[in-house]
Each structure stands twice: as structure tokens, then as C-alpha cells.
Amino acid sequence: MKIEILPQGMKERNTSVQVLSLPPDKSIFHRLLIIGSLSRSTIRIPISAIEDLPIDIISTILAMQSLGVPIEISRSEIELQGVGIGNYHEPKHQLNCGNSGTTARLLMGLLCGQKFSSKLTGDSSLSSRPMKRLADLLNNELGSDITTAPEGKMPVTINGKDLHPGEVLLPVASAQMKSALLIAGLHMNGRVLVTEPQQSRDHTEKMLAAFGIEIYSENTTTTLTSPQHFDIQREITYNVPSDISSAGFLIAAAVIARKNIILKNVGINLTRKKFLDILIASGLEIEISSLKEEFGEERATLEIFGVESKISRRFEVRIEDIPKIIDEIPLLAALACFCNGQTVISNAGELRNKESDRISLLVKNLTAFGALVKETEDGFTIFGDEKFIPKGGAIEHYGDHRIAMAMAVMTLKSKESVTISDAEVVSVSYPNFYRDLALIIGKERINIS
Ligand code: S3P
Known about the structure:
- The chain is α+β, with helices and mostly antiparallel strands and 449 residues long.
- It has two domains: 3-23 and 241-448, Alpha-beta prism (UDP-n-acetylglucosamine1-carboxyvinyl-transferase, Chain), CATH 3.65.10; 26-237, UDP-n-acetylglucosamine1-carboxyvinyl-transferase, Chain (Alpha-beta prism), CATH 3.65.10.
- 28% of the residues lie in helices and 25% in strands.
- It contains twelve helices and 23 strands.
- The chain has helices spanning 26-38, 55-66, 101-111, 132-142, 175-185, 203-210, 244-257, 274-282, 329-336, 358-368, 401-410, 433-441; strands at 3-5, 18-20, 42-46, 71-73, 77-81, 95-96, 117-121, 145-149, 153-159, 166-169, 190-195, 215-218, 221-226, 235-237, 260-267, 286-294, 297-305, 341-345, 372-376, 379-384, 393-395, 418-420, 446-448.
- The strands form six sheets. The protein has a four-stranded mixed sheet.
- Strand 8 (145-149) and strand 9 (153-159) form a beta hairpin.
- The protein binds shikimate-3-phosphate.
- Shikimate-3-phosphate binds next to helix 5.
């Protein structure tokens, strides 16, 4: 599929408020499928339609089914029957994690303490991402037996083994690695302690606690002692909040296209909403209402006043913010081009290990569209200007969904047309992205071929 985004016409803007729906939070959904399967409960997860689910979630569903977890998908919900710790079946074939790093890392933690062997594979992007550093931590600190392909990449072979307690210091802040270690920690007798250099997203800790597991976090250290008992009702309905990372693209589009939008039931976990604070400090007008907490995860309605907002002050990003905005950095980079002054992103070397090398790919795209950017080893500096008008051209996403969406949003300000080839790449996290973008900017601006 090829998408062409046309420049804004001279027609008067329609200022009616759009209420938009977003895909479910990917991070929470992966954990619900994996942690839920360790319980003995029936878990119902309402969905709008199977086609609206991020493809990454489908990868986790298929992997869990291959491990013998009963998961049924109907029009309006997914029903998972937890099998309990240690009750998976040996998979008959390799588990394909597709594009999903979270699926691969969390499964490494889950499978290393089972009584059988398994093998994880992934698509070409996932197969170029580092797996050895997590394998080494699980092997060296908890006694697992995981081998990676040469250069520490996929496929990953996991020979299930009895694990032992351990204390782990993560070399980088990473929710995926932390979660893998904690999930492995449920499969042993004794304590696992994980310390990160900075705090990363805490969905695993929150979900385990909501499922009755005793888990303690202080500063950046989390501990869990097993054996543990999952203490939840026999049947639960878990409403996964909308994904705040996907919301970011619509919020930015609303500000650039000067539209007001409402997003309901958006997850606003403190370890995920930092980019909103950064945008608010730069001039975003937003109202957060209808706050509600379910299973330890806060959600709210976000009303974005794109008509009134003027994001023009450079972004202030501190080192400890980086893990909390790691997935929003492409979007923040795109918006920083319109902010007066220098936005500096540093200590973000992990971006080179994402679905693409996001530092070099961002710099390449931003430069191609006319922005002033300087690449550094662990980040970049953007020299922004509120009068910046991006050039037209082709977005180069190299299969990375967030680069495609960030650049699509940034180039809404271009006076020339912009194209995205293999545009369906966005389905990894946001299958209806172009439909929702069209609701904000007008469908006459988007050509699909
Ligand atoms: C995720 C953690 C982040 C993020 C990824 C999802 C998770 O990676 O980039 O998209 O669900 O745990 P880190 O492991 O670098 O924190």
C-alpha cells in the first residue's frame, strides 16, 4: 500500500471536535496475555475488532496458543484461560515473534524456566536486534541455558532449566529486560532483584501486583520472591486502556493541523506520560479528565486543544526522562523542528536497537525534509524554528512503524506532497492510523494506492 499525503488546501478549517478511538496499549496487552496465562483465571479482554489489534499483539497470541494456552477470539473480545505456572505444552514448532521485541524478550523470561526447549524467531528487523545481553543476564545471574545465533541475534534457543535466585544490575534501563527477569523469577524458589540505571515503564510490576503477586519496588530496584500464588478472581474482565504512544501521533497531528480532538480511556501510567509533560511545557493545551484506575493502571480522557495550542518552546529532556519517552522520541524529534532553539536528546543510545536504528533513520529523514539536525553517538540535536516548513518527498521508514508515523505527522506542514511506500507497516502498533489521521486532516488530503 502506498499513501500520499497532500498539502493543506486553502479551504477553511473545520473546527468541529473529533472523538477518536485508539488501539489498545501494546505493552499492557502483551503482559496480560503472558502474565494472565500464568494465573488460573479466565480473562476476558474486550476489543473493538480483531483488525484493530496491533500485529505485535497477534504475535504474542499465536505464541501463547502454541504453548497450549487456550485463547479464543470473537468479534468483541479475547478470552484467555490461564493454565498456571509450569503448565505449558512444549511447542511443536518455532515461536515466531514477528516484529515484536517485547514478545521475544518476555518469552525468553517465561520459557527459560520451563521443562522443555523452545526456539524463538522473528522478522528481519527483530532478527537484527540484540538478544544476547538479556540471554547473558538470565544465564549468568539466574542459571538459564539460552543461546543466540552468531552476533547475539535471533533465532534464540531456550533449553528449559531449573533457575536459581539472583541479583541483576541492568546495563541499560529496559522494561523488556526487567520484565523478562521478573517473569523468570516466578519460576524458582527464592528471590530475584533487578536494578536499572533509570526507571523504565512499570506495567509488569503493576500487573503482577494486581494479580496478587507480592512485588516490591524502591527507587529503581524491584524484588520478587517465589514461590508465589496468583490471587485473583476465577473470572475477570480486563479493559486494556488505549495506547498513549499511539495517542501521541494524533495529538501531534491535531496540533499541527490546528484541530481539537478527544481521546478516551487513554493509559496515563506515570512511566509513559512524560512526553505529554514535555509538550505541555512547550505550549500544548490539554485537559485531562475522567481519571480512573483499573488493575493499577490509570486511564483518562484527553481533550487536545489543537486550535489553541502553540508548541514553539524547545523541549527540555532530562537523562532520567529518556526511558519514559523512549517510544515517543521520533515524534518529539519531528515536533522539535518547529520549536525555537535547540532540543538535545542524549543518553538515548538504546534508540539504535529499536525496530530500526532510530537515531540514524530519524536524522536521515529529518535532514531529507529540510530540518537542521546533528547526529551524536547517543542521540541528536535539533535546531528548530517555528517558521520551519518541511519539503515534500518520500518517507524512508525501513519497516519501522514509529518512524513512518512520526514523519507522516511532521510533513503535514509541508506545502508539497509526501509519500509513504509499504505504508501498512504502521499496523505493527496502529492498524487504523491513516483512517484516524484522515479524520483530523480531512480525507481529501490522503490518497491510498
Ligand atoms: C516496551 C519497552 C520499551 C519500548 C518497547 C516496549 C515494553 O523497550 O521501547 O516498545 O513493553 O516493555 P525497553 O526494553 O527499551 O524499555
